[in-house]
User: What shape does this take?
Amino acid sequence: MKKVILFVMFVFFCLSLFPQKDTTGIASARLKQDLPARAATATVSIYPVPVRENYFNIKTDQDISSIRITNIIGQVIYKVQYNSPQVLSTIYLDNPRRGMYLVAILFSDGSRIVKKIMIEPSE
Assistant: This one.
């Protein structure tokens, strides 16, 4: 009897390890909502690389409507939204810390692109 109970518990344990299907499609619908309507095809230049001062430039061939800079753990350190679209933007940061940052650029057509930058403040 103990062997049967042990076997049944083992089978239930093994079956619980398998991932369950999303039969309702909720997760895939949420993923589709978070993605932009189309991928950005813009050419983006960020310079100087690596960033050694308190500023850097972003130059694109499309109109920029907003820029958001986050650190690797997702904390927003800089955010700007333009009333009139820009193709060249100079970003000034207040005492940036050394590290890797993500620059999310939203274009006026609704597409967006994310670039990585390395900040190494001069001492």
Notes: The chain has two helices and five strands. Residues 69 and 91 are 10 Å apart (CA to CA).
